[in-house]
Write a structure and sequence with these properties.
By secondary structure, the chain is an alpha/beta fold. The protein contains 14 helices and 17 strands.
Protein backbone atom coordinates (compact mmCIF):
# COMPACT_ATOMS: atom_id res chain seq x y z
CA UNK A 1 0.00 0.00 0.00
CA UNK A 2 1.24 3.50 -0.80
CA UNK A 3 1.64 6.23 1.77
CA UNK A 4 -0.88 8.54 0.10
CA UNK A 5 -3.09 10.42 2.55
CA UNK A 6 -6.68 9.07 2.40
CA UNK A 7 -9.77 11.27 2.35
CA UNK A 8 -12.53 11.11 4.93
CA UNK A 9 -14.98 11.04 2.02
CA UNK A 10 -13.68 7.60 0.95
CA UNK A 11 -14.97 5.73 4.01
CA UNK A 12 -18.33 4.02 4.48
CA UNK A 13 -18.47 3.13 8.19
CA UNK A 14 -16.73 5.39 10.71
CA UNK A 15 -16.12 5.06 14.44
CA UNK A 16 -15.37 8.32 16.29
CA UNK A 17 -13.79 8.25 19.73
CA UNK A 18 -14.33 11.26 22.00
CA UNK A 19 -12.35 11.47 25.25
CA UNK A 20 -13.36 12.97 28.59
CA UNK A 21 -10.89 15.83 28.34
CA UNK A 22 -12.56 17.02 25.12
CA UNK A 23 -16.15 16.46 26.15
CA UNK A 24 -16.05 17.76 29.73
CA UNK A 25 -14.76 21.09 31.03
CA UNK A 26 -12.65 19.90 33.96
CA UNK A 27 -12.95 23.21 35.85
CA UNK A 28 -16.77 23.19 35.83
CA UNK A 29 -17.48 19.48 35.37
CA UNK A 30 -19.89 20.38 32.57
CA UNK A 31 -20.18 19.29 28.94
CA UNK A 32 -18.48 21.60 26.42
CA UNK A 33 -21.72 22.18 24.55
CA UNK A 34 -20.50 24.56 21.80
CA UNK A 35 -17.76 22.12 20.78
CA UNK A 36 -20.02 19.07 21.02
CA UNK A 37 -22.64 20.86 18.94
CA UNK A 38 -20.07 21.40 16.20
CA UNK A 39 -19.07 17.72 16.32
CA UNK A 40 -22.75 16.75 16.08
CA UNK A 41 -23.03 18.92 12.97
CA UNK A 42 -20.16 16.96 11.42
CA UNK A 43 -21.75 13.64 12.39
CA UNK A 44 -25.06 14.79 10.93
CA UNK A 45 -23.37 15.70 7.65
CA UNK A 46 -21.72 12.27 7.38
CA UNK A 47 -25.00 10.59 8.28
CA UNK A 48 -26.86 12.58 5.63
CA UNK A 49 -24.38 11.29 3.05
CA UNK A 50 -25.45 7.74 3.88
CA UNK A 51 -22.40 6.82 5.94
CA UNK A 52 -22.67 4.65 9.05
CA UNK A 53 -21.38 6.47 12.14
CA UNK A 54 -20.63 5.07 15.60
CA UNK A 55 -19.40 7.08 18.60
CA UNK A 56 -17.26 5.80 21.48
CA UNK A 57 -17.66 8.42 24.18
CA UNK A 58 -15.94 8.84 27.51
CA UNK A 59 -17.24 11.28 30.09
CA UNK A 60 -19.61 9.35 32.37
CA UNK A 61 -17.31 9.38 35.41
CA UNK A 62 -16.27 12.98 34.80
CA UNK A 63 -19.89 14.12 34.68
CA UNK A 64 -21.08 11.93 37.53
CA UNK A 65 -18.39 12.98 39.97
CA UNK A 66 -19.53 16.59 39.60
CA UNK A 67 -23.15 15.70 40.31
CA UNK A 68 -22.15 13.67 43.37
CA UNK A 69 -19.68 16.32 44.59
CA UNK A 70 -16.71 13.96 44.55
CA UNK A 71 -13.23 15.50 44.82
CA UNK A 72 -10.89 15.92 41.88
CA UNK A 73 -8.10 13.40 41.46
CA UNK A 74 -8.06 9.63 41.59
CA UNK A 75 -11.22 7.93 42.88
CA UNK A 76 -11.69 4.64 44.69
CA UNK A 77 -13.18 1.92 42.49
CA UNK A 78 -16.58 2.03 44.18
CA UNK A 79 -16.68 5.84 43.85
CA UNK A 80 -15.83 5.57 40.15
CA UNK A 81 -18.63 3.06 39.69
CA UNK A 82 -21.11 5.29 41.50
CA UNK A 83 -20.02 8.32 39.48
CA UNK A 84 -20.40 6.32 36.26
CA UNK A 85 -23.92 5.23 37.23
CA UNK A 86 -24.98 8.87 37.60
CA UNK A 87 -22.89 10.18 34.72
CA UNK A 88 -24.07 7.63 32.16
CA UNK A 89 -27.60 9.03 32.40
CA UNK A 90 -26.34 12.56 31.78
CA UNK A 91 -24.01 11.43 28.99
CA UNK A 92 -26.71 9.47 27.17
CA UNK A 93 -29.17 12.36 27.44
CA UNK A 94 -26.58 14.80 26.12
CA UNK A 95 -25.78 12.70 23.06
CA UNK A 96 -29.44 11.95 22.40
CA UNK A 97 -30.46 15.60 22.51
CA UNK A 98 -27.52 16.97 20.57
CA UNK A 99 -27.83 14.41 17.75
CA UNK A 100 -31.59 14.92 17.61
CA UNK A 101 -30.90 18.51 16.48
CA UNK A 102 -29.27 16.92 13.42
CA UNK A 103 -32.26 14.59 12.89
CA UNK A 104 -30.17 11.63 14.01
CA UNK A 105 -31.34 8.98 16.48
CA UNK A 106 -28.84 7.89 19.14
CA UNK A 107 -28.70 4.47 20.82
CA UNK A 108 -26.68 3.73 23.95
CA UNK A 109 -24.52 0.61 24.30
CA UNK A 110 -22.44 -0.15 27.41
CA UNK A 111 -19.64 -2.70 26.99
CA UNK A 112 -17.07 -4.45 29.14
CA UNK A 113 -13.87 -6.17 28.03
CA UNK A 114 -15.60 -9.56 28.07
CA UNK A 115 -18.23 -8.35 25.62
CA UNK A 116 -15.53 -8.01 22.96
CA UNK A 117 -13.34 -10.96 23.97
CA UNK A 118 -15.86 -13.78 24.50
CA UNK A 119 -17.28 -14.83 21.13
CA UNK A 120 -20.85 -15.44 22.32
CA UNK A 121 -21.11 -11.97 23.84
CA UNK A 122 -19.14 -10.52 20.93
CA UNK A 123 -21.72 -11.86 18.46
CA UNK A 124 -24.57 -10.45 20.52
CA UNK A 125 -22.98 -6.99 20.64
CA UNK A 126 -22.07 -7.14 16.94
CA UNK A 127 -25.66 -8.03 16.04
CA UNK A 128 -27.03 -5.13 18.10
CA UNK A 129 -24.65 -2.67 16.44
CA UNK A 130 -25.56 -3.99 13.01
CA UNK A 131 -29.28 -3.65 13.64
CA UNK A 132 -28.95 -0.09 14.99
CA UNK A 133 -27.03 0.86 11.85
CA UNK A 134 -29.70 -0.77 9.69
CA UNK A 135 -32.22 1.52 11.40
CA UNK A 136 -29.90 4.47 10.65
CA UNK A 137 -29.25 5.17 14.32
CA UNK A 138 -25.88 6.26 15.70
CA UNK A 139 -24.71 3.88 18.46
CA UNK A 140 -23.05 5.77 21.33
CA UNK A 141 -20.78 3.31 23.13
CA UNK A 142 -19.00 3.57 26.46
CA UNK A 143 -17.25 1.19 28.79
CA UNK A 144 -19.66 -0.01 31.45
CA UNK A 145 -17.79 1.55 34.36
CA UNK A 146 -20.63 0.79 36.77
CA UNK A 147 -19.68 -2.90 36.83
CA UNK A 148 -16.19 -3.01 35.33
CA UNK A 149 -13.34 -3.81 37.70
CA UNK A 150 -9.61 -3.67 37.07
CA UNK A 151 -9.73 -7.30 35.92
CA UNK A 152 -12.42 -6.83 33.27
CA UNK A 153 -11.97 -3.28 32.05
CA UNK A 154 -10.11 -1.65 29.20
CA UNK A 155 -9.00 1.30 31.28
CA UNK A 156 -8.99 3.55 28.23
CA UNK A 157 -11.46 4.15 25.44
CA UNK A 158 -8.85 4.18 22.68
CA UNK A 159 -8.56 0.41 22.70
CA UNK A 160 -12.30 0.05 23.30
CA UNK A 161 -12.89 2.17 20.20
CA UNK A 162 -10.54 -0.07 18.20
CA UNK A 163 -12.41 -3.18 19.37
CA UNK A 164 -15.73 -1.56 18.48
CA UNK A 165 -14.36 -0.67 15.04
CA UNK A 166 -13.34 -4.27 14.38
CA UNK A 167 -16.62 -5.59 15.82
CA UNK A 168 -18.62 -3.31 13.52
CA UNK A 169 -16.37 -3.95 10.48
CA UNK A 170 -15.72 -0.21 10.27
CA UNK A 171 -13.25 0.93 7.65
CA UNK A 172 -12.14 4.01 9.62
CA UNK A 173 -11.49 4.82 13.27
CA UNK A 174 -11.06 8.49 14.25
CA UNK A 175 -9.42 9.23 17.60
CA UNK A 176 -10.09 12.85 18.54
CA UNK A 177 -7.30 13.88 20.87
CA UNK A 178 -5.66 16.79 22.61
CA UNK A 179 -2.86 16.52 20.03
CA UNK A 180 -3.05 16.67 16.24
CA UNK A 181 -1.32 13.38 15.58
CA UNK A 182 1.88 11.45 16.14
CA UNK A 183 5.22 13.21 16.49
CA UNK A 184 8.75 11.81 16.46
CA UNK A 185 8.90 12.79 20.15
CA UNK A 186 6.48 14.41 22.64
CA UNK A 187 6.28 17.98 21.21
CA UNK A 188 5.71 19.54 24.64
CA UNK A 189 9.11 18.23 25.71
CA UNK A 190 11.08 18.40 22.47
CA UNK A 191 10.98 21.46 20.23
CA UNK A 192 12.59 19.46 17.42
CA UNK A 193 9.76 16.93 17.31
CA UNK A 194 8.37 16.43 13.80
CA UNK A 195 4.77 15.67 12.95
CA UNK A 196 4.19 12.41 11.04
CA UNK A 197 1.26 12.67 8.59
CA UNK A 198 1.10 9.01 7.50
CA UNK A 199 2.13 5.74 9.16
CA UNK A 200 2.01 2.95 6.53
CA UNK A 201 2.76 0.31 9.18
CA UNK A 202 3.18 0.37 12.96
CA UNK A 203 6.76 -0.67 13.64
CA UNK A 204 8.87 -0.81 16.80
CA UNK A 205 10.19 2.62 15.87
CA UNK A 206 6.65 4.03 15.71
CA UNK A 207 5.79 2.44 19.05
CA UNK A 208 8.88 4.06 20.56
CA UNK A 209 7.60 7.51 19.66
CA UNK A 210 4.56 7.14 21.95
CA UNK A 211 4.63 9.17 25.14
CA UNK A 212 3.14 8.42 28.57
CA UNK A 213 -0.42 8.86 29.87
CA UNK A 214 -2.36 12.04 29.23
CA UNK A 215 -4.56 14.42 31.18
CA UNK A 216 -6.23 14.23 34.58
CA UNK A 217 -9.60 13.20 33.12
CA UNK A 218 -8.12 10.85 30.55
CA UNK A 219 -6.80 7.36 31.21
CA UNK A 220 -5.18 7.29 27.79
CA UNK A 221 -2.22 8.82 26.01
CA UNK A 222 -0.29 8.31 22.78
CA UNK A 223 0.79 4.86 23.92
CA UNK A 224 -2.81 3.62 24.08
CA UNK A 225 -3.53 5.24 20.71
CA UNK A 226 -0.71 3.26 19.12
CA UNK A 227 -2.10 0.10 20.75
CA UNK A 228 -5.49 1.00 19.30
CA UNK A 229 -3.85 1.47 15.92
CA UNK A 230 -2.36 -2.02 16.04
CA UNK A 231 -5.77 -3.53 16.85
CA UNK A 232 -7.55 -1.53 14.15
CA UNK A 233 -5.11 -1.85 11.25
CA UNK A 234 -4.63 -5.59 11.78
CA UNK A 235 -8.41 -5.93 11.34
CA UNK A 236 -8.52 -3.94 8.12
CA UNK A 237 -9.50 -0.59 9.65
CA UNK A 238 -7.62 2.62 8.89
CA UNK A 239 -7.13 4.97 11.84
CA UNK A 240 -6.57 8.69 12.15
CA UNK A 241 -5.50 10.73 15.17
CA UNK A 242 -6.68 14.34 14.98
CA UNK A 243 -7.09 17.32 17.27
CA UNK A 244 -10.38 17.74 19.07
CA UNK A 245 -9.47 21.26 20.12
CA UNK A 246 -11.04 22.79 17.02
CA UNK A 247 -14.66 23.36 16.11
CA UNK A 248 -16.07 20.90 13.57
CA UNK A 249 -13.11 18.52 13.99
CA UNK A 250 -14.33 16.05 11.35
CA UNK A 251 -14.74 18.79 8.77
CA UNK A 252 -11.18 19.87 9.61
CA UNK A 253 -9.94 16.37 8.72
CA UNK A 254 -11.96 16.45 5.49
CA UNK A 255 -10.48 19.84 4.63
CA UNK A 256 -6.92 18.51 5.02
CA UNK A 257 -6.18 19.65 8.57
CA UNK A 258 -3.11 18.28 10.31
CA UNK A 259 -3.54 14.73 11.60
CA UNK A 260 -1.85 11.33 11.42
CA UNK A 261 -3.22 8.48 9.31
CA UNK A 262 -2.44 4.86 10.19
CA UNK A 263 -2.99 2.70 7.14
CA UNK A 264 -4.21 -0.88 6.88
CA UNK A 265 -3.25 -3.24 4.09
CA UNK A 266 -6.60 -5.06 4.08
CA UNK A 267 -10.33 -4.42 4.21
CA UNK A 268 -12.37 -5.24 7.35
CA UNK A 269 -14.24 -8.02 5.53
CA UNK A 270 -11.07 -9.64 4.21
CA UNK A 271 -9.28 -9.40 7.56
CA UNK A 272 -12.27 -10.85 9.40
CA UNK A 273 -12.62 -13.76 7.01
CA UNK A 274 -8.89 -14.47 7.31
CA UNK A 275 -9.27 -14.54 11.10
CA UNK A 276 -12.25 -16.92 10.93
CA UNK A 277 -10.73 -19.12 8.24
CA UNK A 278 -7.20 -19.45 9.53
CA UNK A 279 -6.97 -18.56 13.22
CA UNK A 280 -9.86 -19.99 15.19
CA UNK A 281 -9.92 -23.64 16.24
CA UNK A 282 -13.11 -25.38 14.97
CA UNK A 283 -15.29 -26.92 17.70
CA UNK A 284 -17.63 -28.89 15.44
CA UNK A 285 -18.74 -29.71 11.91
CA UNK A 286 -21.87 -28.87 9.92
CA UNK A 287 -22.57 -31.11 6.91
CA UNK A 288 -24.37 -29.33 4.08
CA UNK A 289 -26.46 -30.37 1.10
CA UNK A 290 -25.63 -29.34 -2.47
CA UNK A 291 -28.09 -26.47 -2.44
CA UNK A 292 -26.51 -24.92 0.65
CA UNK A 293 -23.00 -25.30 -0.80
CA UNK A 294 -24.07 -23.52 -3.99
CA UNK A 295 -25.76 -20.74 -1.98
CA UNK A 296 -22.68 -20.19 0.18
CA UNK A 297 -20.46 -19.90 -2.87
CA UNK A 298 -22.81 -17.18 -4.16
CA UNK A 299 -22.28 -15.25 -0.92
CA UNK A 300 -25.41 -16.28 1.00
CA UNK A 301 -25.77 -17.04 4.70
CA UNK A 302 -26.14 -20.62 5.92
CA UNK A 303 -29.76 -21.45 6.80
CA UNK A 304 -30.82 -24.44 8.92
CA UNK A 305 -32.64 -25.98 5.94
CA UNK A 306 -29.35 -26.62 4.14
CA UNK A 307 -27.68 -28.58 6.95
CA UNK A 308 -27.99 -32.37 7.00
CA UNK A 309 -25.93 -33.34 10.03
CA UNK A 310 -24.18 -31.83 13.06
CA UNK A 311 -20.97 -33.18 14.63
CA UNK A 312 -19.31 -32.16 17.89
CA UNK A 313 -20.23 -30.09 20.92
CA UNK A 314 -20.05 -26.35 20.45
CA UNK A 315 -21.55 -23.16 21.82
CA UNK A 316 -22.95 -20.10 20.11
CA UNK A 317 -20.04 -18.06 18.76
CA UNK A 318 -17.69 -21.03 18.33
CA UNK A 319 -16.01 -21.71 15.00
CA UNK A 320 -17.21 -24.76 13.05
CA UNK A 321 -16.14 -26.49 9.84
CA UNK A 322 -18.52 -26.61 6.89
CA UNK A 323 -18.40 -29.77 4.76
CA UNK A 324 -20.22 -30.59 1.54
CA UNK A 325 -21.96 -33.88 0.62
CA UNK A 326 -18.61 -35.41 -0.45
CA UNK A 327 -17.00 -34.55 2.92
CA UNK A 328 -14.77 -31.83 1.48
CA UNK A 329 -14.27 -28.64 3.48
CA UNK A 330 -16.29 -25.74 2.08
CA UNK A 331 -15.31 -23.16 4.69
CA UNK A 332 -15.57 -22.15 8.34
CA UNK A 333 -17.82 -19.86 10.31
CA UNK A 334 -19.03 -18.64 13.68
CA UNK A 335 -22.21 -20.53 14.51
CA UNK A 336 -25.27 -18.73 15.91
CA UNK A 337 -26.64 -21.68 17.93
CA UNK A 338 -25.36 -24.17 20.49
CA UNK A 339 -24.92 -27.69 19.10
CA UNK A 340 -28.02 -29.09 20.85
CA UNK A 341 -30.21 -26.33 19.39
CA UNK A 342 -28.59 -26.73 15.98
CA UNK A 343 -29.40 -30.45 16.02
CA UNK A 344 -33.08 -29.67 16.50
CA UNK A 345 -33.48 -27.11 13.72
CA UNK A 346 -31.33 -28.51 10.88
CA UNK A 347 -33.26 -29.35 7.76
CA UNK A 348 -36.11 -27.06 8.82
CA UNK A 349 -37.23 -23.67 7.53
CA UNK A 350 -36.07 -20.61 9.49
CA UNK A 351 -39.72 -19.69 10.09
CA UNK A 352 -40.07 -22.83 12.21
CA UNK A 353 -37.24 -22.00 14.65
CA UNK A 354 -39.42 -20.34 17.27
CA UNK A 355 -41.94 -23.20 17.33
CA UNK A 356 -39.16 -25.80 17.63
CA UNK A 357 -36.95 -24.09 20.23
CA UNK A 358 -39.50 -21.97 22.09
CA UNK A 359 -37.71 -18.71 21.28
CA UNK A 360 -37.02 -16.66 18.18
CA UNK A 361 -33.30 -16.95 17.49
CA UNK A 362 -31.29 -15.91 14.44
CA UNK A 363 -32.71 -16.80 11.04
CA UNK A 364 -29.27 -18.06 9.97
CA UNK A 365 -27.12 -20.79 11.48
CA UNK A 366 -24.13 -18.77 10.25
CA UNK A 367 -24.41 -15.25 8.86
CA UNK A 368 -22.40 -14.57 5.72
CA UNK A 369 -20.35 -11.91 7.54
CA UNK A 370 -19.27 -14.57 10.06
CA UNK A 371 -18.09 -17.04 7.45
CA UNK A 372 -15.01 -17.71 5.30
CA UNK A 373 -15.80 -19.84 2.23
CA UNK A 374 -13.37 -21.35 -0.24
CA UNK A 375 -10.50 -19.06 -1.20
CA UNK A 376 -11.81 -15.97 0.66
Amino acid sequence: MTSAVPSLADFRRIVIKVGSALLVDSARGKVRLPWLTSLAEDIGALHAEGKDVLVVSSGAIALGRTVLGLPRGALKLEDSQAAAAVGQIALARTWSEILAHENVTAGQILLTLRDTEERRRYLNARSTLARLLEYRAVPVINENDTVATSEIRYGDNDRLAARVATMASADLLILLSDIDGLYTAPPAQNSDARHIPVVPRITAEIEGMAGAAGSELSRGGMRTKIEAGKIATSAGTHMVIASGHVKNPLRAILDGGRCTWFLSGATPARARKAWIGGTLEPRGILHLDEGAVAALRRGASLLPAGVTRVEGLFERGDAVLLRGPDGGEIGRGLVAYDSDHAERIIGRASAEIEAILGFQGRLELIHRDDMAVGAE
